[in-house]
């Protein structure tokens, strides 16, 4: 009952990888080192370029300020281009400085709020220097105890800070606001859910969109419903993709619950977001114990497999079954596509595009991992704890 998608449809997939996935990361208990860990942003981009070379799926690399701060952003941009990739989304960081202990854009003290806005203005300058369109804002802001601060006042300060940042954007740039239900704040979070992010981005204007991180919801949340809703509202700007078993685990996408990834991609395709450069697919993961570049290769291939399964859905038959209220047939049509082994068709696609048919094997045989382990000593920690 499944159909065979065209190579043209399959080839539309683009996934952005993130620089911090290549650095050492861990939990609050321990950060484990990996031989060959990049020592600077240039080496992180070099590693990311390997993922694109092996798969043809990951042409852009998100960066993070301050972790990827360099003296010469034009050099970073050229370095990426020389390696066949481009710098992607610029991520701000207002969660690692003492000043931000009680919040950043929502902080009761105007001096701290100004500092947080200024940090975002620096990020926008970096976007100009690197030719980047998107600024992604994830705020750790929130409180730990009822009464600690006024929830309402913090929303007002947030709106004011976001407006100041939005006003600094060029006409072709976007502000993407990510939500997360808890952590590091444990009582209330200032941008906890898609509704709050939606409300703020609507107030800001057309250039502001929502980021949906798949690990940022309470267990049991129907994430594909949020995807469908944000797409129909024209407000889904990007995904942060990863897997979770418990909270914001940032594990390899599609490994904890491949069926959920399929359902999410189904709504992406059904809502017209697939292949639309305005709806970015980004990996937001940390490889605490597994090899990083292979972990990223596995991740982009998992997304590709999920998308190929979705594109195998017989949409006409599905629409007919839905019109007929034929519950079991409709579900069968969906599950049939999900059960399809799409690996042979993807190997064919790669062969047709001059890519290795087995990207993982190709990369592991290339000797790159052994080379960086020899050459690089003393990698930088590129992420924070849990
Ligand atoms: C934090 O939990 C969020 O997922 C962020 O998207 C992300 O991990 C961060 O922006 C990296 O700086
Ligand atoms: Zn995220
Ligand atoms: Zn997260």
UniProtKB/TrEMBL annotation:
Tree of life domain: Bacteria
Xylose isomerase-like TIM barrel domain ranges (all copies): 71-248
Protein name: L-rhamnose isomerase
Keyword Cytoplasm: no
UniProt-listed InterPro entries: L-rhamnose_isomerase, Rhamnose_iso-rel, Xyl_isomerase-like_sf, Xyl_isomerase-like_TIM-brl
Pfam families cross-referenced by the UniProt entry: AP_endonuc_2
UniProt keywords, alphabetically: Carbohydrate metabolism, Isomerase, Manganese, Metal-binding
GO MF annotation terms: L-rhamnose isomerase activity; metal ion binding
A Gene Ontology biological process term: L-lyxose metabolic process
Species in which this protein is naturally found: Agrococcus baldri
């Amino acid at each position: 009952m499944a159909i065979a998608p065209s190579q043209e449809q399959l080839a539309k997939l683009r996934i952005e990888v993130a620089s911090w996935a290549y650095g050492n990361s861990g939990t609050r208990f321990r950060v484990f080192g990996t031989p060959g860990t990049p020592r600077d942003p240039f080496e992180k981009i070099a590693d990311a370029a390997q993922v694109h070379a092996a798969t043809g799926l990951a042409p852009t690399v998100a960066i993070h300020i301050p972790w990827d701060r360099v003296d010469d952003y034009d050099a970073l941009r050229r370095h990426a281009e020389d390696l066949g990739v481009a710098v992607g989304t610029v991520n701000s960081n207002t969660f690692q400085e003492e000043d931000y202990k009680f919040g950043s854009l929502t902080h009761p003290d105007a001096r701290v709020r100004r500092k947080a806005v200024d940090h975002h203005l620096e990020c926008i300058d970096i976007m100009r220097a690197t030719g980047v369109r998107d600024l992604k804002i994830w705020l750790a802001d929130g409180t730990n105890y009822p009464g600690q601060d006024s929830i309402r006042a913090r929303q007002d300060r947030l709106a004011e800070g976001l407006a100041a940042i939005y006003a600094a954007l060029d006409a072709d740039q976007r502000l993407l606001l990510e939500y997360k239900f808890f952590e590091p704040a444990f009582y209330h979070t200032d941008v906890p859910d898609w509704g709050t992010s939606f409300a703020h981005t609507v107030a800001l204007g057309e250039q502001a969109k929502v980021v949906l991180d798949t690990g940022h919801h309470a267990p049991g949340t129907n994430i594909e419903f949020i995807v469908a809703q944000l797409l129909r509202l024209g407000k889904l700007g990007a995904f942060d993709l990863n897997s979770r078993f418990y909270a914001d685990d940032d594990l390899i996408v599609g490994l904890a619950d491949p069926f959920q990834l399929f359902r999410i991609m189904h709504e992406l395709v059904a809502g017209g977001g697939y292949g639309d450069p305005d709806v970015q697919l980004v990996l937001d993961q940390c490889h605490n114990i597994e090899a990083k570049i292979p972990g990223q290769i596995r991740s982009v291939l998992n997304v590709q497999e999920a998308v190929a399964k979705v594109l195998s859905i017989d949409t006409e038959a599905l629409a007919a079954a839905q019109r007929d209220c034929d519950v079991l047939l409709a579900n069968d049509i969906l599950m049939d596509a999900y059960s399809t082994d799409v690996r042979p068709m993807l190997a064919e696609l790669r062969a047709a595009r001059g890519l290795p048919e087995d990207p993982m094997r190709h990369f592991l045989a290339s000797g790159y991992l052994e080379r960086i382990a020899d050459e690089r000593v003393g990698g930088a920690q590129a992420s924070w704890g849990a």
